[in-house]
Amino acid sequence: MYSQIDSNKRQSVLLMMVFIAVIIGLGYVFDKTLGAGDYSYVIFAILLSFGMTAISYFQGDKIALWTSGAKPIAKEDNAYVYRMVENLAITNGIPTPKIYIIEDSAINAFATGRKPELSSIAVTRGATEKLTNEELEGVLAHELSHVKNYDIRFMTLVAVLVGAIAILSNIFLRSQWLPRRNDRESGNIGAIFMIVGIVLAILSPIIAELIKLAISRRREYLADASGALLTRYPEGLARALEKIAAENQPMKNANHATAHMFLSSPFAGKKISSLFSTHPPAEDRIKKLREMA
Length: 293
Description:
Blueprint: H1 2-34, H2 40-68, E1 70-72, H3 79-92, E2 98-102, E3 109-112, E4 120-124, H4 125-130, H5 133-148, H6 151-174, H7 181-186, H8 188-231, H9 234-247, H10 282-292
Parallel strand pairs: 2-4
Antiparallel strand pairs: 1-2, 3-4
């Protein structure tokens, strides 16, 4: 378990470094092509991206809960779920998060909040009714691990970097009508930079999105390992994932903006390539969990 956790942390840091390298490379090429000379395009793109992300950073948890139709509960509303979350939070050394129920028959759950003191956990009615005690405990431990590992904050930072790349690329493609210093002063070199810039402007947002998805999948593996460590019973979450995969039931309020937050993809139907999925394949997660036992 500890090896799995350490491996995921190292690879997440590596992917973040790739992100930063992509932004620096884009800034250099775009500046050479557009001829600003002061990296103003890069600075503007990053500042604008941070501004757009600020709302999701500070209000994203409320938006996610609202869009999923989650309703808050107190201990007297569902003592079974409330006590289970409370006990796991105490064991995990974090404050008990606010608890929400989503009136949906699909089996799923998600956690949100940029730090443990402001966290919330939402679980579907289907999960509380269809999962055994050990299976539900495994699901909740997984989500509490996201809170403990600051995954929400980490993924928000990733969103900022993705936004910076997308905005920078868009600015470049829309600025092609402007006169460029490199074309006037360096002739063929300027033309080469122009071609490279256009290719990067088209491909960079796609590459950034793939990196984001890779990081998201890494955080799921990390939460699986952390949750198993918390309950000391990996089989519980493994069985829950088996039930979700066998049921293959979509959630009523599923949307792409919050899909990466859930325990399992809230969409159903044909499996898409793991390259473009927000979650690792269920069979891989189950295999890794059972190897931890």
